[in-house]
Amino acid sequence: MQHPFINNLSEKSLEDLQTTISELTKKYTYAARTGNGPLMHQLSMAMDSYRTEYNKQMDDLIKKQNINATVSIEKSNKL
């Protein structure tokens, strides 16, 4: 679920997004340890928003670089 007050994350770089996700994760862990359910819910929504944008930008980067994301598992008979 996206956080309703977080708009237009497309201007942020991948590094900024990852840094923010890490900071939110630390805050979420603290909220969980203290049993603050409403704060956990808000942080979860914020992390979802940032993760969604991060994944979108990573997908775009992979498409730009034409990276083949499939892995071949065929056994080679060469030793």
Question: Which key terms come to mind for this protein?
Answer:
79 residues; mainly alpha; 2 helices; elongated
Structure write-up:
This protein has about 80 residues and is mostly helical. It has a domain at about 15-65. It contains two helices and no strands. α1 runs antiparallel to α2. The N and C termini lie far apart (about 50 Å). The relative contact order is 0.17.
Shape: elongated
Give the terminus-to-terminus CA distance. 50 Å
**Radius of gyration, rounded?**
18 Å
The number of distinct β-strands equals 0
Short description:
The protein is mainly α. Helix content is 63%, strand content 0%.
Summarize the SSE layout with pairings:
Blueprint: H1 14-34, H2 37-65
Helix pairs in contact: 1-2
